[in-house]
């Protein structure tokens, strides 16, 4: 990463009320337009780190430091978009209604909210499905609505917590490519949590490898392949080499003794 980070985690730890230490000494920087993947096993604190960045919880130790020039815009309502593991859509509402929810909660006039939500749905490939309710949509389409809802506020930072983990491989690959296209156009920063070495290498400019709980950054692997990647990158020797390197880092992190 070059230049000052949009947000940095400095020695961040998180201990829950039940005594579980989810994170300990986590140091992490996210650039203003960076695509960062966070890779690690279940229970290593990846999702906790996203929640801390989003302000949904407070760290027990350490600091979260925002770039002063960007802090007001990023931490203002709508400055951070969050896509969860499940689409978490309102089942009674249309795709348009779900996508426009953050704008309605922010008091945006209905006509403007509808126009912006329709544009967000079109950006994720759902033009023509504005009136469909979630039960009428496939799993991949429901996740697209969730992404549109996160993007409708035009965030500076998009946090994604294993959003494609439950999808079939074909749908997952398609959404990977669509996400990269949106990122290339809008240039928001992305923190993408995943269990998949292959997904992390395909999407990200840097991959942060985390070891078992309590989570910390065990290694960071930079990708030299220009981003966003073309689909042909998946079958290239460069991709295979990078996947092997990240897999080796993950294996080493898992084998290391707990701190």
Describe it.
- With 259 residues, this protein is of the alpha/beta class.
- It has 2 domains: 7-79 and 155-255, 3-Layer(aba) Sandwich (Rossmann fold); 89-154.
- 38% of the residues lie in helices and 22% in strands.
- It contains 9 helices and 9 strands.
- The strands form 2 sheets. A 6-stranded mixed beta sheet has the order 5-6-7-3-8-9, sandwiched between helices. It has a 3-stranded antiparallel beta sheet with strand order 2-1-4.
- Helix 8 packs across helix 9.
- The radius of gyration is 18 Å and the shape is globular.
Which terms summarize this structure?
259 residues; alpha/beta; Rossmann fold; 6-stranded mixed beta sheet; 3-stranded antiparallel beta sheet; 9 helices
Mean pLDDT: 91
Q: How many structural units, i.e. domains? A: 2
Number of helices: 9
Q: Quick one: CATH superfamily of the largest domain? A: P-loop containing nucleotide triphosphate hydrolases
Q: Can I get a quick summary?
A:
With 259 residues, the chain is α/β, with parallel strands linked by helices. The chain has helices spanning 46-54, 68-75, 95-99, 101-105, 110-123, 139-151, 169-186, 197-203, 237-255, and strands at residues 7-15, 21-30, 35-39, 61-66, 80-83, 157-161, 189-194, 206-210, 217-222.
């Amino acid at each position: 990463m070059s230049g000052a980070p949009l947000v940095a985690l400095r020695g961040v730890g998180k201990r829950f009320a039940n005594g579980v230490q989810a994170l300990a000494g986590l140091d992490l920087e996210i650039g203003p337009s960076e695509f960062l993947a966070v890779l690690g096993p279940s229970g290593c604190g990846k999702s906790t780190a996203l929640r801390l960045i989003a302000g949904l919880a407070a760290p027990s130790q350490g600091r979260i430091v925002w770039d002063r020039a960007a802090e007001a815009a990023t931490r203002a309502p709508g400055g951070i978009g969050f896509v969860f593991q499940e689409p978490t859509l309102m089942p009674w509402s249309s795709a348009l209604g779900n996508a426009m929810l953050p704008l309605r909660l922010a008091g945006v006039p209905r006509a403007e909210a509808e126009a912006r939500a329709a544009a967000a749905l079109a950006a994720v490939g759902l033009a023509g499905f504005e009136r469909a309710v979630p039960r009428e949509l496939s799993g991949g389409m429901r996740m697209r609505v969730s992404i549109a809802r996160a993007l409708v506020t035009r965030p500076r930072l998009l946090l994604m917590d294993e959003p494609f983990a439950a999808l079939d491989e074909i749908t997952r690959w398609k959404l990977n490519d669509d996400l990269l296209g949106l990122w290339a156009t809008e240039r928001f920063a992305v923190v993408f949590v995943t269990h998949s070495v292959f997904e992390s290498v395909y999407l990200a400019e840097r991959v942060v490898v985390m070891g078992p709980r309590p989570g910390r950054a065990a290694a960071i692997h930079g990708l030299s392949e220009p981003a966003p990647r073309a689909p042909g990158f998946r079958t290239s020797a460069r991709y295979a080499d990078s996947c092997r390197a990240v897999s080796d880092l993950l294996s080493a992190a898992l084998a290391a003794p707990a701190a």
